[in-house]
Q: What sequence folds into this?
């Protein structure tokens, strides 16, 4: 490392040009970055439920379901005409596969001995015709409360949309098409719509948060260095890191999702700490009247090991997220780790190169001069030393309590949970849930002989049981269509008695119009059928319980008559994601802690030191989860990252260890070494914590609830790691690491 | 200068031979049989390539402005005997359906014309277009001549009810056989019909015996094979009755 920096000070132009070239090259990738926050971006491609969903899309031409509610008096000729125009217009929006509303619903009814199968709304709709249509709709189980609210104040437009399209553009297209024809308020919800709204927030937030984080970090840097270059140099190195990282993502074809909005802030906050340490030392050396080139070298030599260790640890912690099965988290881990390592590279190459070119500042302030902060740190040392066992006891108690609280943490993957209470998507979802009984859909694929009346009766029985559950709005399958046909033919509700009657009634329906209306419920050869269950938007746990209950009902009713019954739909996918996040959490957490301990042990030459070094981290992570359990913060796709990121931000305790060991090697007593390390590194730790914490506070302004929660937890994390690094860590060092030789350091 | 171009156009005109309208008129002028009886094998092929076969028997008869049609399903076994009768007098149309499982003839009403023909990718209208393309309903334009084919674009005239925005019709030269029609809807290609294995019956009727309709939107396909055709053979009126439907 020192060799690198020596090169940087000798050939600063070459270094700067090299950085510039790579920055331009990788930066070009940024323009290739795309956004995607669909359920697919969370689900591993080989998940069985995902494969089934793709099969369902292919077989039944089904898309992901979004629902729009149009508010206003529905039963007037004007409103129905507007609904018709809106339905036609929205069907034209690219990405919309199928639209269902009163405007394209069918009427099948016997009138004076004639069987009518025709459009519900005739071409020339007169006010006189409306009461009869309304009566028909209100008596129709598939339409009443599903396509129009019971009070006639809301009309529903059910939209099936293509997976893998730009949901934001889709939302805008749908809203524009509906609002062009419908005068009243329009509400839109359902998983694809929420995905779109998430993208909207994401695009708005990303840049704002980046700038805000940079500003907050700049303020802290200014208080630390009281100079322009002290602010600009760290920001330069992290900007380079950010461009490389985002650019790499673009070149690798990664897509930005809600989790990615944390990426810039992580790189900015964690990365800036590296240059902060180097620069701190540089000014200190310069202030003690040394030559500039020498000051640079000394700065890198003195801080190098600490910065290297913390960069590797942060990189390892973030890279451990690569083990996640959730693609978005995986990508985040790769890019964040890369960004942090680039920030380290820039701190040890680019920063010295720039420093070598700049003239010495006119006014020199030694950041390591004894000031109020460092004196406070110094005073802390004897207190910790005197109470080392008590401190460790408290830490152990804290660990225990927090671990207990952590067991109460619940996982949450519902897209609705992204939005704060008063956000329009949330309002829309709650309204549609209330008026139409649900915004989410669950799809159940039934394989078997669907001409068998027994199986059809089983489907219907299942639907009846499902609809009895309060969270279920509706359940629709071919059995309902057949009951309608049967009623029109025979005058009474029921299902045909023989397979022949089933086949003939289905044929009759086919003869009446679009064959596609049937193939969305049943395959042509009647070997597979789809039940669509509309449910309210629920927290993941409640959704899981509901799905389990529906599975049990399906087992009891349908399974005995069918070859197979399988559940899918975006809701099921998100439940799978919930299980994955929980499972991954343990894996990535364990892996990250082991990696950090390993790197620290390796670089500091002692297993014991490696183990002690993860104490502040372990305490912090336990604290994070304990707080989540205490305050009911859910573990979701954003908060799932906090542990990994804690490793990134929290490893500045390594600076204290490095200094402590250095003092021991010089033959000082452990107590004296503690005092020096807190005096010298404590101040840096304090300001790094402030800079990193400040950076993360930018996320408090996020439009996503999980990211705000994340920011709150990061506030705790940064404070806690600093606190533990200044108390529990020295206490542990005093107890367990009293002697140190780099070669055989594990004999205390 | 202007006069020069007038001369060029006048001289060039005969070389262009027929206009689009003339091509369609020639298609329309071909003789159509008064009665038609035969079997149809209908293969419904979905986008995964799964095939479902239906077999029907069809009788049609035209007398003045009265058109009668009876269709009976022969296969698959579970719909065998299902019968559909349509009698059209001018604008009035009466339709009846017999479902053997319910042993009842039902009168059915409603706009069937735009709907699917027997659950296939053909609509009733598509089938009707086979017999006669009413050239007066369309604004037509000869797009080009491709070897032995005329390629004509036909756009429904304002006020003419049509499920399509535009048709592009391939007409084969010597007999003015329609061999392919592209149907456009909402600016995009919606369906493509190809008419193959055209045979001459009774020395004058040119009948395609293999029709394929490809729905580009749903990627679903129907193949219609016509066999055992009898044209202009007398069909008694008793065929187009409820009693015959139930038989």
A:
């Amino acid at each position: 490392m020192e060799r690198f920096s020596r090169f940087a000070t000798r050939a600063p132009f070459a270094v700067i040009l090299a950085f510039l070239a790579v920055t331009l090259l990788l930066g070009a990738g940024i323009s290739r970055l795309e956004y995607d926050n669909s359920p697919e971006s969370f689900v591993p491609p080989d998940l069985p439920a995902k494969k089934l969903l793709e099969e369902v899309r292919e077989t039944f031409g089904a898309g992901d379901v979004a629902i729009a509610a149009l508010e206003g008096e529905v039963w007037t000729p004007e409103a129905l005409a507007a609904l018709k125009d809106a339905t036609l217009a929205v069907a034209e929006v690219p990405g919309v596969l199928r639209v269902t509303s009163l405007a394209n619903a069918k009427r099948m009814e016997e009138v004076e001995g004639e069987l009518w199968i025709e459009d519900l709304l005739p071409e020339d709709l007169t006010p006189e015709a409306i009461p009869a249509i309304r009566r028909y709709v209100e008596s129709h189980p598939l339409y009443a409360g599903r396509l129009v609210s019971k009070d006639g104040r809301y009309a529903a437009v059910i939209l099936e949309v293509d997976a893998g399209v730009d949901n934001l553009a889709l939302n805008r297209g749908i809203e524009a098409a509906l609002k062009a024809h419908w005068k009243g308020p329009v509400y839109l919800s359902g998983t694809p719509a929420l995905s779109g709204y998430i993208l909207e927030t994401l695009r708005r937030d990303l840049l704002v948060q980046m700038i805000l984080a940079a500003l907050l970090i700049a303020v802290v840097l200014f208080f630390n260095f009281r100079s322009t270059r002290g602010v600009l140099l760290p920001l330069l190195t992290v900007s380079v890191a950010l461009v490389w990282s985002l650019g790499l993502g673009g070149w690798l074809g990664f897509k930005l999702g809600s989790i990615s909005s944390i990426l810039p802030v992580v790189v900015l906050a964690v990365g800036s700490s590296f240059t902060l340490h180097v620069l701190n030392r540089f000014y200190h050396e310069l202030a003690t009247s040394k030559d500039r080139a020498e000051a640079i070298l000394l700065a890198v030599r003195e801080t190098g090991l600490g910065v290297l260790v913390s960069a590797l640890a942060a990189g390892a912690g973030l890279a451990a997220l690569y083990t996640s099965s959730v693609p978005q988290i995986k990508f985040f881990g790769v890019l964040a780790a890369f960004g942090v390592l680039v920030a380290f590279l820039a701190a040890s190459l680019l920063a010295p190169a720039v420093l070598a070119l700049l003239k010495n500042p006119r006014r020199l302030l030694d950041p390591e001069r004894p000031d109020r902060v460092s004196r406070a740190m110094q005073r802390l040392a004897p207190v910790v030393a005197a109470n080392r066992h008590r401190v460790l006891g408290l830490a152990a108690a804290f660990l225990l309590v927090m671990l207990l609280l952590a067991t109460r943490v619940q996982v949450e993957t519902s897209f609705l949970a992204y939005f704060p209470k008063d956000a329009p998507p949330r309002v829309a979802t709650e309204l549609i849930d209330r008026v139409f009984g649900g915004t989410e859909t669950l799809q159940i694929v039934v394989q078997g002989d669907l001409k068998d009346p027994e199986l059809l009766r089983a489907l219907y029985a299942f639907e009846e049981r499902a609809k009895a559950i309060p969270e279920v709005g509706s359940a629709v399958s071919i059995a309902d269509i057949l009951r309608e046909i049967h009623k029109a033919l025979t005058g009474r509700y029921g299902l045909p008695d023989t397979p022949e009657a089933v086949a003939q009634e289905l044929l009759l329906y086919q003869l009446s119009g679009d064959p596609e209306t049937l193939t969305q419920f049943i395959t042509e050869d009647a070997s597979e059928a789809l039940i669509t269950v509309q449910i309210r938007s629920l927290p993941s746990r409640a959704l899981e319980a509901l799905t389990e209950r529906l599975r049990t009902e399906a087992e009891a009713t349908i399974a005995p008559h069918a070859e197979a019954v399988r559940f899918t739909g975006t809701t099921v996918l998100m439940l799978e994601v919930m299980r994955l996040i929980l499972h991954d959490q343990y894996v990535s957490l364990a892996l990250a802690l082991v990696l950090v301990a390993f790197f620290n042990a390796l670089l500091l030459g002692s297993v014991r030191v490696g183990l002690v070094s993860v104490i502040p981290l372990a305490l912090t992570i336990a604290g994070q989860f304990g707080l989540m359990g205490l305050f009911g913060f859910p573990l979701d796709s954003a908060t799932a990252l906090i542990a990994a990121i804690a490793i990134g931000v929290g490893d500045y305790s390594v600076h204290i260890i490095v200094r402590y060991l250095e003092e021991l090697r010089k033959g000082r007593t452990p107590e004296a070494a503690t005092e020096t390390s807190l005096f010298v590194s404590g101040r840096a730790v304090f300001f790094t914590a402030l800079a990193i914490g400040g950076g993360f506070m930018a996320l408090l302004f996020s439009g996503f609830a999980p990211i705000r929660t994340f920011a709150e937890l990061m506030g705790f994390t940064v404070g806690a790691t600093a606190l533990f690094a200044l108390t529990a860590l020295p206490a542990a060092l005093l107890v367990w690491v009293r002697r140190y030789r780099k070669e055989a350091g594990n004999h205390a | 200068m202007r006069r020069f171009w007038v001369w060029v156009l006048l001289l060039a005109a005969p070389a262009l031979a027929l206009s689009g309208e003339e091509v369609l008129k020639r298609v329309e002028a071909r003789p159509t049989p008064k009665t038609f009886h035969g079997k149809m094998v209908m293969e419904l092929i979905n986008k995964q390539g799964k095939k479902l076969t239906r077999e029907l028997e069809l009788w049609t008869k035209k007398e003045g402005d009265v058109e009668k049609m009876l269709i009976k399903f022969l296969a698959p076994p579970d719909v065998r005997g299902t019968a559909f009768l349509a009698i059209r007098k001018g604008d009035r149309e009466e339709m009846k359906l017999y479902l053997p499982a319910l042993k009842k003839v039902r009168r059915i009403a409603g706009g069937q014309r735009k709907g699917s023909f027997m659950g296939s990718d053909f609509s009733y209208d598509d089938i009707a277009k086979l017999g006669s393309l009413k050239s007066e309903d369309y604004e037509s334009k000869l797009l080009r001549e491709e070897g032995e084919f005329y390629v004509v674009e036909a756009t429904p005239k304002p006020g003419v009810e049509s499920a399509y925005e535009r048709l592009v019709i391939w007409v084969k030269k010597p007999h003015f056989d329609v061999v392919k029609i592209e149907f456009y809807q909402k600016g995009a290609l919606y369906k493509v019909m190809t008419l193959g294995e055209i045979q001459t019956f009774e020395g004058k009727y040119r009948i395609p015996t293999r029709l394929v309709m490809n729905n580009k939107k749903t990627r679903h396909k129907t193949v219609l094979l016509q066999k055992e055709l009898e044209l202009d053979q007398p069909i008694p009126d008793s065929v187009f009755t409820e009693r015959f439907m139930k038989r």
About this structure: Chain A touches chain B at residues 58-59, 61, 92, 111, 113-119, 451, 489-490, 496, 498-505, 507-508, 510-516, 519, 523-525 (CB under 8 Å).
